[in-house]
Design a protein that fits this description.
Shape: globular
CATH topology of the domain at 64-215: Rossmann fold
Number of strands: 9
Strand order of the largest sheet: 5-4-3-6-7-8-9
Structural class: alpha/beta
Strand content: 25-35%
CATH architecture of the domain at 64-215: 3-Layer(aba) Sandwich
CATH superfamily of the domain at 64-215: Vaccinia Virus protein VP39
Order of helices and strands: HHEEHEHEHEEHEEE
Radius of gyration: 16 Å
């Protein structure tokens, strides 16, 4: 591995997990992920630290896995694609808002390509677990909050990137208001039966919509638990 892809300080590091990550990254490259910063981020972050003990042997499969509370850790390809879309036209982002921390894996990936990540998780137990995982990995550029993410985090905006890891029927207008000029918002949108990964680029105050792939995410919910 090159210096830029040296794994973070994970508890189960070593040659096995490093080789598994390398194979996963090569598979992502073959599926069309071509942003080297994104691939390096996926190579660095130990996905096995973000899944339950019984699922660690499957951590580097390119598939979503359950994390409890009817939530999942997203498929690595989808994590990579969403991160690549968020970086559209830019090498690195300054301030990013993530709505739906979940396991913290996507958060950790974003932390490799962003100066500062602000992440909101509505389920308290997941927020606490993610906080501890990120802390153990020595990731210090993430601010994590337990709360309702549907209204964003206006006090920390504007953001040059916003990512939703759960699907609303329609992205709330309040989130577009927190997106900086030339900023990118990435989100799955649609019902539980049909969702599409979309991204918007804000230009002259207007968010222009672009389509990506069909996806399946848990629905975005208001409130907190």
């Amino acid at each position: 591995m090159s210096e830029t892809t040296t794994p973070l300080n994970d508890r189960f590091g070593g040659f096995v997990s490093a080789r598994s990550r390398e194979r996963l990254v090569e598979g992502l490259r073959q599926k069309g992920i071509d942003n080297e910063r994104v691939l390096n981020a996926l190579a660095r972050v130990p996905r096995h630290d973000f899944v339950e003990e019984a699922l660690k042997s499957r951590a580097y499969e390119d598939t979503a896995l359950p994390i409890g509370y009817q939530q999942t850790i997203s498929q690595p390809y989808v994590v990579a694609l969403m991160t690549q879309l968020l970086l559209t036209g830019r090498d690195r982002l300054k301030r990013v808002l993530e709505i739906g921390t979940g396991s913290g894996f996507q958060t950790a990936v974003l932390a490799q390509v962003c100066a500062r990540v602000f992440s909101i998780e509505r389920i308290g137990a997941l927020a606490e677990r993610a906080h501890h995982r990120l802390e153990k990995l020595g990731i210090e550029n993430v601010s994590l909050r337990h709360g309702d993410g549907t209204n964003g985090w206006s006090a920390k905006g504007p953001f040059d990137g916003i990512m939703l890891t759960a699907a609303p029927d329609r992205v709330p207008d309040s989130l577009f208001a927190q997106l900086a000029e030339r900023g990118v918002l990435v989100a799955p949108e649609g019902s539980d039966r049909q969702q599409r990964l979309l991204y918007w680029i804000k230009k002259d105050g207007i968010a222009l919509r672009h389509k990506s792939i069909d996806v399946v995410f848990v629905p975005l919910q208001a409130g907190q638990a």
